[in-house]
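Class, carefully examine what follows:
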Amino acid sequence: MIRADTKDRLQRVIERHAPHAIFNAPMRARFGRHAVGSCRHVFGGLQCVVRFPNGYGASVIRHSGSYGGAEGRWELAVIGPDGSLAYDTPITSDVKGWLTPADVEGLLDRIAAL
């Protein structure tokens, strides 16, 4: 899971920049053992992208319009090797919402193993 102090620091840095600014933090933010590649401010919330050596990745997002965002939960979408959202993996055929940090970490483990 993202440590609360790390997430808060990321959010403060992002909020100081224009909403379109991207904050790259490869070693500062983590979901469990998974390093976050980049984070950006979106729709008043946060989107982080994680990529894996197998070519897959994930977009993990939380804002007022994401599934579970209003409750402080995360939404995850699988990113395929071509960089687009992948709806044909054993992980999911859609996005997954209302996720706790532990749920996100478990899904990231599964994506890394594809």
The first helix runs from residue 4 to 16. The beta strands are 22-23, 30-31, 34-35, 38-42, 45-51, 57-62, 74-79, 96-99. Residues 62 and 69 are 5 Å apart (CA to CA). The chain has a mean pLDDT of 78.
